[in-house]
Design goal:
Blueprint (H helix, E strand, L loop, with lengths): L1 H25 L1 H6 L3 E10 L2 E5 L4 E6 L6 E2 L4 E5 L2 H92 L5 H90 L1 E3 L4 E3 L9 E2 L4 E7 L3 E7 L11 E6 L6 E9 L25 E8 L14 E7 L4
Antiparallel strand pairs: 1-10, 1-14, 2-9, 3-5, 3-8, 4-7, 5-6, 7-9, 10-13, 11-12, 11-14, 12-13
């Protein structure tokens, strides 16, 4: 009995200690997430790595850099042979010049055609003026004919009167009832009016001929107007043809200019340059090597370095953008770099995996997920320039818990 009492107290103590340990373990994640400092060694330095590839096929003429060399944005890294591409550019330039010349010639033809149209319009105006003049001449000639015929009619009356008087005087003198003087006067009057009638008939004939001439002038002017109108329509049709040709020439010129841009762009693709400041990786090609579009020739690691820290999901509860952080780099013993949280990933790291986890089956084991956190370095820290992408680091983020 005494022995049992002696062991009862230590057993109770052990039982209480075990209970406390279980409570501590059960609340460890909650306690850890509420701490002001969150630390992880699941962190690495990162930089943008850009694989540089060819856009055109060709032979490598020269590789201008060595492995791991520092370069500036715009530095030439790889040069492909550009003989064929330069020839294509020259051919495209010649085609553009020919297209421009054809368009200029079309413009000149249009100007000449416009002058012909203007000349045809002037001819129409002249023909219309001739018609007006001919119509006025016809009216005048008709008036002359009417006057001449009226004069003929009047003269015929005089001829009839004087002829009758002549016959009367001749009859009277036969019976000695008239004098020779009266007979002579009657004969003279009859002859004079007969001559005047002939003259008046000649005037009618001349006026009629003049009227016919004026009518012929009118017909000629009308025919000329029809010819001028037909010529104007023909010139307008030719102008429309030139307008249609202009549209085709412009389209052809635009196509040739586009072909020139493509040729110049392809020529530019023979020069593979650094898009940003950084350091190149290993060269993938050598001079004389034939490459096809999409062949990777070299990689560029940009100078800017940051940290990707993979924190447990329970550690990011109070973590915010802008929280200060310290970074210790295994490759730089004793160095403590300053930075701040740039952003937290919108999803856990496993969500971006090629095959995301699927827990739809009955077998499920809860695993604390990791959330990538990007930490950028504060400026004016010389040690940062010694960092490389992929180095192991330890990060500590100071959280201002609310």
């Amino acid at each position: 009995m005494r022995s049992s009492k002696q062991w009862s107290v230590p057993g109770l103590v052990l039982l209480m200690a075990a209970a406390i340990l279980v409570m501590i373990i059960g609340n460890w994640n909650s306690w850890a997430s509420d701490r002001s400092d969150q630390k992880t060694d699941d962190a690495y330095t990162r930089s943008d790595l850009t694989p540089l590839s060819t856009k055109v096929a060709g032979l490598v003429a020269a590789v201008m850099v060595s492995d791991y060399q520092s370069v500036k944005a715009g530095d030439l890294l790889v040069q492909l042979r550009d003989d064929d591409f330069r020839a294509q550019v020259q051919q495209a330039e010649a085609a553009v010049v020919a297209g421009e010349d054809a368009l200029i010639n079309n413009q000149r033809q249009k100007e000449l055609q416009d002058a012909r149209i203007a000349q045809a319009v002037e001819g129409i105006h002249a023909a219309q003026a001739d018609i007006v003049a001919a119509q006025a001449g016809i009216e005048a000639a008709r008036s002359t004919v009417i006057n001449a015929r009226s004069a003929v009619d009047a003269t015929k009356a005089d001829v009839d009167r004087t002829a009758s008087e002549r016959h009367r005087q001749e009859a009277l003198i036969a019976v000695e009832s008239s004098t020779p003087q009266k007979v002579e006067q009657a004969v003279a009057d009859a002859d004079r009016y007969s001559g005047l009638l002939a003259s008046r008939n000649a005037d009618v004939a001349a006026a009629t001929a003049q009227l016919a001439s004026r009518e012929a002038d009118l017909n000629k002017a009308q025919a000329q107007l029809g010819s001028r109108n037909a010529e104007l329509e023909a010139q307008k049709r030719q102008r429309a043809v030139l307008d249609s040709q202009e549209m085709m020439l412009k389209a052809d010129l635009n196509a040739k200019r586009a072909a020139l841009v493509v040729a110049q762009t392809n020529l530019g693709y023979t020069r593979i340059v650094a898009p940003e400041n950084g350091r190149v990786g290993e060269r993938k090609v050598l001079p004389g090597q034939l490459v096809s579009p999409g062949t990777q020739v070299i990689s560029l690691v940009q100078d800017e370095v940051w940290v990707q820290a993979n924190y447990k999901e329970t550690q990011t509860r109070h973590m915010r953008t802008g929280d200060p952080a310290t970074v210790r780099v295994d490759a730089l013993p004793g160095a403590v770099l300053r930075g701040k949280v740039a952003y937290l990933s919108p999803a856990s790291g496993s969500s971006f995996a090629l095959l995301p986890p699927d827990n739809a089956t009955g077998n499920f084991t809860k695993i604390v997920q990791r959330v990538p956190v990007k930490i950028v370095f504060d400026p004016n820290q010389p040690a940062v320039q010694h960092l490389r992408s992929g180095l192991s680091v330890i990060t500590t983020v100071r959280i201002n818990a609310q």
